[in-house]
Amino acid sequence: MRASSSSSSSSSSWMQSVQDSSNGFWDSLKKAAFVIGSGLFFLVAFRNSVTWHLQRFWGASGDFWQAQWTRLYTVFNRNEASLFFIGTMLVPTLFFWMFNGFLMIVDMTGKPAFITRYKIQQDKKSPVEVERVWRAVKKVLCNQLFLSVPLLVLTYTVMSWRGEPCAPELPTFHWVLLELAVCGLLEEVLFYYSHRLFHYPFFYKNIHKLHHEWTAPIGVVSLYAHPVEHVLSNMLPALIGPVLLGSHMATTSLWFSMALIVTSISHCGYHLPLLPSPEFHDFHHLKFNQCYGVLGVLDRLHGTDDKFRKTKEYERHTLLLSLTPLTKSIPDMPKKQVTSQPWTRPKNK
């Protein structure tokens, strides 16, 4: 009878634990929806006032870009499929490899010193082994060629059904800004939750562990991932915004280029002046169970940045506006010296 009572009590406590966990998860989702929804409302409410001034500042430049687009549209004889592929695949990929090509030279040679002095994890081996870098490059090229290209063909098909992704008229400047903001918020949501999913033991062991081979990442590692992860966590969060919004190819090209450069900066391992801080994601590669998102909004809501916020890396997580590396201006706490105790002869019993 006592055993039955104990079993019943254990079962009810387990059910209560599951229910509490479920309630916590849904509460977190509600908070996320509220914050992101409020952000979207703010953007919609102010896009016609604040961005109107930016549109005026854009002025003749807008006419300039429209003229260039019309000329390009004519040169390609209105071949929208080719235009879409060039704008959404070739242009962003060119930016990605130009940026990371330079960083790879720095990583493999350890020069020039005016770049390496901004390295975040100063204690890690530098320069990086050449073979390791080339192994990452091959994997990234395979992901881009065999996964990104087919996905973009599918994206073009879907967007063509819904509208005209290569319309003759470019969108207005303030509309582009709004779409970029929405794309960023959607990417934050999809990347955060897919990324956390890949940290569950089964998915981590079989899929995500490949990406985390680099505890001190370099820029090109941003796309160094298992094929499943590349599709679900790298491509899908970036694609969903333009597809849902029916974005113009010009906006989509700009968004993809920005997304690739930002993720490269997040992985590059150098906190360079005037560039977004990579401290957040670098800390994720160092500690594994912190800082899952891009913007950090959902990490704050879910408490997955609590340890990060107690570190020197968090203090350095800011835009660097001087030439002094933050590892110098905000140095790590000195490691505690282990004082050796004088050796004493054990007492005789």
From TrEMBL:
GO cellular component, one term: membrane
Alphabetical list of Pfam families matching this protein: FA_hydroxylase
Residues spanning the signal sequence: none
InterPro entries attached to this UniProt entry: Fatty_acid_hydroxylase, PH_domain, Sterol_Desaturase_Related
Compartments, as annotated in UniProt: Membrane
Bilayer-spanning residue ranges: 32-50, 83-106
BP terms from Gene Ontology: lipid biosynthetic process
The UniProt record lists the keyword Membrane: yes
Keywords: Membrane, Transmembrane, Transmembrane helix
Protein's UniProt keywords contain Transmembrane: yes
Domain PH: start-end pairs: 1-23
Gene Ontology molecular function terms on file: iron ion binding; oxidoreductase activity
Highest taxon, organism lineage: Eukaryota
Protein's recorded name: PH domain-containing protein
Lineage: Eukaryota, Metazoa, Chordata, Craniata, Vertebrata
